[in-house]
Amino acid sequence: MREPVRRPRAPRGALDAIRRGADRVDTATPASRDRAVDALRAFAVLGVVLGHWLVTALVADGGTLRAASPLQHLPRLAPVSWVFQTLAVFFLVGGHGATRSHTSARARGATYGRWLGARLSRLFGPVAAVLALWTLVALALLLSGTEVATVRTLVKLALSPLWFLMVFACLTAATPLLTRLNPLWPLTVVLHVDLLRFGLGGPSWLGWVNLAAGWLVPYTLGAAWARGELEHARPGWILFIGGVVATALLVGFAGYPASMVGVPGASVSNLDPPTLAVVTFGLAQCGLALLLRDRLRHAMRRPPAWAAVALVNLSAMTVFLWHQTAMMAATATGLLAGRLPGLHTVPDGLGWVAARLLWLPVFASMLAVCWAAFHGFENTGGRGVRGRRGGSRVLRAGQRPKPSGRSAVHRV
Question: pTM of the predicted model, to two decimals?
Answer without folding.
Answer: 0.86
